[in-house]
Specification:
Number of helices: 6
Low-confidence stretches: 91-100
Strand content: 15-25%
Strand order of the largest sheet: 1-3-2
Distance between the termini: 42 Å
Number of strands: 3
Structural class: alpha+beta
Radius of gyration: 16 Å
Largest sheet: 3 strands, antiparallel
Length: about 100
Amino acid sequence: MTLESRKSVYEPLRQRLLREGSQSLQLTFSEIEAILGRKLPRSAHTFSAWWSNESSMKVGHTQAKAWMEAGFRAHASIKNRMVEFRRARRLSVSRKIRSYRPNIC
């Protein structure tokens, strides 16, 4: 666990996602608020950018850092007030090796 995620109000969401065994999980905004034990910020209800999968601290998306550290990407529907967290795909070692092409002059 990183120092940033331990301090984050989104740590309970990260922990919930770490326990998830399936490839995806749909949660309503209300369910996420129950997990967090607090209301989501107004911007989460208004702007899809709040749910972007950008975890840069320069941008300040500590919420994205929580689900991305758990291995998920968020796909939100502001209209339906729900988020689908989908497990991020990772390249297998064999695919990485097969796709490696050294730069030879």
